[in-house]
Amino acid sequence: MTVFFFCFFAGFAQQKSIDAVRTNARITVDGKLDEEAWKTAPVATDFVMFAPDNGKAIAAEKRTEVRFLYDNEAVYIAGTLKDDPKLILKEITQRDVVGTADIFGVFLNGFNDGQQDFQFFVTASGVQLDRLATEDGEVNVSNFSQDMSWDAIWDSATELTESGWTVEMKIPYAALRFSKELVQNWGLNFYREIRRDRQVYTWNFVDAKIATTRNQNGLLRGIKDVKTPTRLFFIPYASYYYEDTPGGIANTVKAGMDIKYGINDAFTLDAILVPDFGQTRFDNIILNLTPFEQQFAENRPFFTEGTDLFSKANLLYTRRIGGPARFRPRDFDPSVESLSDQPAAVDLLNALKISGRTKGGLGIGVLNAITEETYGTFTNNETGATRRAIIEPLTNYNVFVVDQRFNNNSSVTYTNTSVLRNGFYRDATVSALNFDLYTKDNSYNLFGDFKYSSIFGDTYVDGFKTSLNFEKTSGKWRYSLFGKYLSDNYVVNDLGILFQTNYHNAYVDWSYRILNPTGWFNSLSIAFRNSVEFQNNTGRVQDYYHNVSISATSRANDFYSFEAQYNPLTAYDFYMPQVENRFNYVPGSYILNAYYSSNYNRTFALDARLNYRKYFECNRIDYVYSVSPRIRVSDRCLLIAGTSYVRSINDLGSIGFVDDAGSIYYTRRTVKTITTDLTGRYALNNRMTFNLTARHYWLTSRNKANFTLRDDGFLTATDFIEGIDDNFGAFNLDLSYTWWFAPASQITVLFRNSAQDYRNDLSQNYGRSFQNLFAENMANIFSVSFRYYIDYNAAKNWF
User: Fold this and answer.
1) CA angle 596, 601, 604 (to 5 degrees)
2) Residues 442, 210: contact at Cβ < 8 Å?
3) 483 and 506 in contact (C-beta within 8 Å)?
4) Residue 141 and residue 213: Cα distance in Å, rounded?
5) For residues 280-305, b (16+ Cβ closer than 10 Å) or e, as one string?
6) Considering only CA atoms, which of 690, 789, 692, 786 is closest in space to residue 747?
7) ∠ CA 620-541-462 to the nearest 5 degrees?
8) Do residues 297 and 303 lie in contact, with contact meaning Cβ atoms separated by under 8 Å?
9) Which of 100, 268, 526, 644 has the fewest CB atoms lying closer than 10 Å?
10) Integer CA distances (angstroms), 658 to 185, 677, 722, 723, in order
């Protein structure tokens, strides 16, 4: 029996292959699989489970058969997926949204180099999802480390049958990348997810013990005489905005175009002319009491799609491009005048990116964006006189990346970013060399970097950062050793984002995980982490902790995690004072975190979180409670509500005031934050959806005592300061209708409502603070946007 099992499992590890079959027949993509041509296609079957029971053969009653054909225009995939049709989950969502539905997918790599998969998915309800897979990680469609913002023009259809469901897909060559060789072998894999059981299967076995998955595809052999089409796409748009704000009423019409052009079989040019990002998701604004800027998610499609190369060195924070203005005129004196009016963001004039990868594994990326010169209004504090002055010069942002991959799993990358500003304003550049090396069997990994930054302005400033990590990446037992050093003047925030610098750190972790289900768990991971961090100049400890965490998925597919952390020493914060070479103490503490997420397959599901931190200081406590119930009313309707309550008792923080004697003032405060979110979705069909997103945020900070900061980092009591309490509320609501009326083309109608309110009065309760938002400062926007994706290969036949 032992010998039989070994042979059975080893058979899965062998690479599967099928022969490519050309067809001249017309394939109608309707999900019915009734064309005679399908009978000539070879069958890919005998799927193997990726998760949770990695390596287990698919059951006979869930047998999956896939056929593959191609012609001069596209590749065609037909899948027959056996199952009990009454049990198939088929929630309807909008495109690229993973819902509670069974999924079929195909992975295609035209160079068969294990480096980049073009992945296409369709759910049992007919919803399309597509992504570029360039990162390591699981193959699951819910692995959002891959680029889900990438959209291609392709066709698909599904059909429920008495014995399960069927799917047909047509993927034009313009949506893929491949060489010009007469006879080609492509990397190929098929994917099936049975949602009710949370089971993921692939045609070619993907070993979960190995960190890299893109090099575990099967093989499509002998695809012949296919030509790379002209990859030229035009995406014209037109939009209308009606805005009713405290500043007045405005009507705006915008029009522009995006262009995508395949320079050759490997590289693509993306350009936006007269961009319009008015319908991107709103930002989750907070009242920021930390010394660091708030980091926002990127929601603009141009800056999220196909940016894996540009993110290699972690030097690109795209919200810098077209973000808030950052400068003041040289003669600006805050004691004399104040900035009384400015645009919310700097306008982006145009942007382009060129990216791709050759068959030899050489990836090249170029990104360029230009923002316009921006003016603000300054008012004299005494006379009331106003003047206009530049608050952001004409600016050119650039990123250049060269990434060489080899051995299917390793890479060396050079990245350079630069920001060039018109006039006397400072310029900046950062260069980075990264390496990411795996052993041939993907069991061990060595990665590290060296980065060098320069600021050119009135003075020249340079700095560097370096790190090295060694990690065991396979098997049940894994570990990593990590160290990094950041110099004092290492600065990347002109185009990147970095919160802390001038320190060195050492980190070690060890973990155990089960790779196949047990009697209680589908998955289980236990990890121990230890980290210590020192400020460079003083050698003082900035952070030191011991951490243990346990996470598990039960056999019922409920997720649990628990974390405990011990910070035994007094540490020192060099950032809160916001004055160079000053710091304040942070007492030791212990932290407990717990999280629960029930199986989303259920009609009613729940997420809940509890975080608790107790400092080794009298009555100083932080805690967080959050709960988020979700109910799937039907396959068409989903509602998710969430609320979190955050409270910091006896929190210590700088009030941002330094007197003439150089004394830095601190406050001991109680901070309370309540955030409520509501998300709703109703689908008319798999192309039309209504979406609701609403958020209310309320923070209060009550000043209880005041101090001045001593040179040793501790505090001395001082007179009580009135009028520094905070009461801030923010409200946002987006209600939209989206219709994907053609492949990758959509019409969106959006109503947006937003308001903010800040005051020092803490006498008002939650309800009154909520009413204040609607009493004033309310903004309403109604907009309609039309975007149409035109493929040159189809459009040329129109004429």
Assistant:
1) 65
2) yes
3) yes
4) 13
5) eebeebebebebeeeeeebebbbbbb
6) 786
7) 120
8) no
9) 526
10) 68, 38, 16, 16
- Which two structure tokens, joined as six digits, stand for 286? 């907070």
Helix (H) or strand (E) holding 553: strand 541-554
Distances (CA, A) of 349 to 252, 254, 322, 330, 352: 17, 13, 9, 25, 11
Phi then psi for residue 6, to 5 deg, are: -60, -45
SS3 62: helix
Question: Between the CA of residue 728 and those of 621, 697, 698, 699, what are the distances in Å?
Answer: 22, 8, 6, 5
**Hunting for tokens 């193959």 — which residue is that?**
139
Cβ of 347: how many Cβ atoms within 10 Å?
12
The answer for residues whose C-beta is within 8 angstroms of residue 220's C-beta and 6 or more apart is: 17, 18, 20, 68, 185, 186, 187, 188
What does 251-314 look like in DSSP terms, one character per residue?
Answer: EEEEEEEEEEEESSSSEEEEEEES---TTSPPP------SSSPPP-----HHHHTT-TGGGTTS
Q: Which two tokens stand for residue 275?
A: 């961009």
Contact 113, 176 (CB under 8 A): no
Q: Is 318 helix (H, G, I), strand (E, B) or coil?
A: helix
Contact yes or no for 614/590 (Cβ under 8 A): yes
Closest C-alpha among 274, 280, 273 to residue 253: 274
Q: Is the dihedral of CA 329, 330, 332, 335 positive or negative?
A: positive
Please state, in angstroms and rounded to a whole number, the distance separating the CA atoms of residues 103 and 122.
6
Tokens representing residue 85 in the block: 């049709």
Q: How far apart are CA 295 and CA 299, in angstroms?
A: 13
What are the backbone angles phi and psi of residue 265, rounded to the nearest 5°?
-70, -10
Query: Of 183, 74, 68, 171, whose CA–CA distance to 117 is shortest?
Result: 171
Residue 234 CB contacts under 8 Å (≥ 6 apart), including other chains: 257, 258, 259, 790, 792, 795
Find, among 266, 269, 468, the residue nearest to 366 by Cα.
Answer: 269
Cα–Cα distance measured from residue 448 to residue 469, given in angstroms and rounded to the nearest whole number: 6
- The letter for the amino acid at 100 is T
Residues 194, 62 contacting (CB under 8 angstroms): yes
Contacts by 714-718, CB closer than 8 A, 24 or more apart: 714/584, 714/585, 715/584, 715/652, 715/666, 718/665
Closest CA to 112 of 167, 46, 179: 179
pLDDT profile of the chain (799 residues), mean per 10: 35 79 94 94 95 94 97 95 96 91 95 87 95 78 74 92 96 89 94 94 90 86 89 92 89 92 88 86 92 91 85 94 91 90 90 89 94 94 93 96 88 97 94 94 93 94 97 92 97 96 97 90 95 97 98 95 97 94 96 97 96 94 97 96 97 89 93 97 94 96 96 95 93 95 91 92 82 83 94 77
Give the CB-side neighbour count of residue 123, counting CA atoms within 13 A. 26
Distance CA 714, CA 733 (A): 44
CB 258 within 8 A of CB 744: no
Instruction: Provide the token pair at 13.
Output: 């590890």
Which residues partner with 733 through β-bridges?
694, 753
Is residue 257 within 8 A of residue 233, CB to CB? The reply is no
